[in-house]
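Customer escalation, tier 2.

The customer says the design service returned an amino acid string that "doesn't look like it belongs to this structure." They asked us to rerun it and document both sides in this ticket. The original structure tokens are below, unchanged.
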């Protein structure tokens, strides 16, 4: 086999590793952000993991119809959502579950998991059942014990750690501690309308380069920007002035990240790291 053929084969194999796009805090009818991020996503044929607050202001059926559907609705059939607090301004997040149907997991629960390539991916609901003995946490522990892939990605709405306006949310500590014990590599959240990347951290939020969770805040889906507040010590990158999506390439034992801004904006962040050994 020629060198050219070997290189071509390696390139094709590399391209087969799955890619996902992540962002939350999306559709405000009075902001152009959702239209701009939708244009960015439409050109990229990958699954979209939507990390909550998808239809402002109240997650009503009309909010999804008028603000979300005209833009991000174009790729609804490849979207895997997690609910945000604005969805729960409508009792039980009923319009959210009605809009996404089975794609949002079991109605009323809002958490589910699936496999993608060599990775296991978990979508959680940070609006309810947050205690360590809750049904959601019991389900999560059983799910992670059952799925023993080395590489695991979890996503939900409220960030355990953030330097944005809302800041860190201690209510999600039970999520974080369990995911750390189970060797999860990556967590992505939204809620703060910023992009932020943290160094890997242990269950107590301390630096842990060997087994720590690397987390991202990707509340950049289209809602109006937030300022960076009280920059946390282990925040490696923080930016509050761009819309865009976080692109994760999921290799069998590692991952690469890249922030993709919308047209006309230039902020970028990129890197790669190995998965945590489980």
């Amino acid at each position: 086999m020629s060198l050219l053929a070997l290189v071509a084969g390696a390139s094709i194999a590399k391209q087969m590793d799955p890619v996902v796009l992540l962002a939350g805090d999306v559709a405000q009818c009075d902001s152009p952000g959702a239209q701009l991020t939708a244009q960015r996503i439409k050109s990229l044929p990958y699954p979209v993991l939507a990390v909550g607050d998808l239809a402002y202001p109240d997650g009503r059926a009309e909010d999804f119809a008028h603000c979300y559907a005209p833009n991000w609705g174009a790729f609804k059939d490849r979207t895997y959502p997690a609910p945000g607090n604005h969805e729960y301004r409508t009792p039980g997040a009923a319009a959210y579950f009605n809009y996404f149907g089975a794609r949002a997991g079991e109605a009323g629960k809002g958490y589910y998991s699936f496999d993608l390539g060599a990775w296991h991916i978990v979508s959680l609901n940070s609006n309810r059942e947050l205690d360590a003995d809750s049904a959601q946490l019991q389900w999560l522990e059983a799910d992670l014990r059952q799925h023993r892939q080395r590489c695991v990605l979890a996503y939900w709405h409220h960030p355990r750690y953030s330097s944005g306006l809302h800041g860190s949310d201690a209510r999600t500590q039970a999520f974080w501690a369990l995911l750390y014990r189970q060797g999860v590599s990556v967590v992505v959240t939204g809620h703060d309308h910023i992009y932020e990347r943290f160094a890997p951290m242990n269950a107590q939020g301390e630096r842990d380069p060997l087994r720590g969770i690397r987390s991202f805040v990707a509340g950049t889906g289209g809602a109006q920007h937030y300022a960076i507040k009280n920059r946390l010590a282990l925040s490696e990158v923080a930016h509050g002035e761009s819309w865009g999506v976080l692109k994760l390439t999921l290799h069998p034992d590692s991952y690469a990240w890249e922030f993709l801004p919308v047209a006309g904006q230039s902020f970028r962040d990129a890197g790669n790291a190995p998965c945590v050994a489980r």
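Tier 2 assessment: The sequence is consistent with the input. The CA atoms of residues 44 and 198 lie 26 Å apart. Residues 1-14 have pLDDT under 50 and may be disordered. Sent an explanation to the customer and offered a walkthrough call.
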